Amino acid sequence: MAIDSTDTLNTSTSDPFPRGRAILFLIAGLIGIIFAVDCFTPAGMPVWVFYLIPLILTYQAPYVWTPYYTAGVCAVLTPLGLVLSSSIPGVPPWLPWVNRTAGLVMLAVSVYLIAQYKRLTQTLIKTAALDAEHKALQLRETLLLKNVQDVQDLYDRAPCGYHSLNSQGMFVGINQTELDWLGYHKDEVVGKIRFLDLLTPESVALFHQQFPHFMERGLVRDLEFEMRRKDGSLLPVLLNATAIKDPEGRFIASRSTLVDITDRKRADDLLRTSHERLEFEVRERT
User: Fold this and answer.
1) What is the number of alpha carbons within 13 Å of residue 24 lying toward its C-beta?
2) 192 Cβ contact list (under 8 Å, min separation 6)
3) How many other C-beta atoms lie within 10 A of the C-beta of residue 119?
4) pLDDT per residue over 252-274, tens digit each?
5) Which residues pair with 238 in a beta bridge?
6) How far apart, in whole angstroms, are the C-alpha atoms of residue 116 and residue 268?
7) Residues 203-226: pLDDT tens digits?
């Protein structure tokens, strides 16, 4: 970003704080005192040198115009003080003017150096502020990235399966938990496999029956499906889903959660077997 030298300092003429006003009063007072002393001092005395004191003080002033205005006032008062002061007998009249001319050159050089130093200081301050802001942005980006990674990890490593299907029933998203259950890699599933491709024939019939109603209603609860893993084994799941729709109500994708109910099915089978055995024993005894 280019930095305009006129913008590196605060050019506002309003007083931002009392300290700036106090410095201006001090500079004006010193200039008045030096001019009064110069007027009552013989012309050969280089009283103009003291004008460098208020000029140096302009470095502390918060206004960009202060060094130039101060130097301009001092440049006017330097020859005026010579005109109003008395001459020294025996001193050539041109010598004080040479002295004052050198003083004007010194004032010009001084104001240039002070102005450049103020600009350099303000540039360094702005650079440091930009660097601090850049580091703060980097820290914020790092924290945001960590939050994104945490959310992604929570999605992928959740204790239940998550997936999203488009209107054709194709996987458009799936978490790592569900992939681990099924034995697939993500690039084998997303955009390549439909949900019903992983279902048993009985579950395929249920999917064809429920999916059109789901896209219309946008909600389905506690549907039991049997999915076939990559190795051919079966995975019984309980599915709940909500629909993502555009502002016009058109279906975009599903948000589905799967719960592995293998243990529940096994317990149901054991309970059913136990009941059948008990009924058989009762019939045998009667």
Assistant:
1) 15
2) 170, 171
3) 17
4) 999 999 999 988 877 767 777 76
5) 224, 259
6) 87
7) 999 999 999 999 999 999 999 999
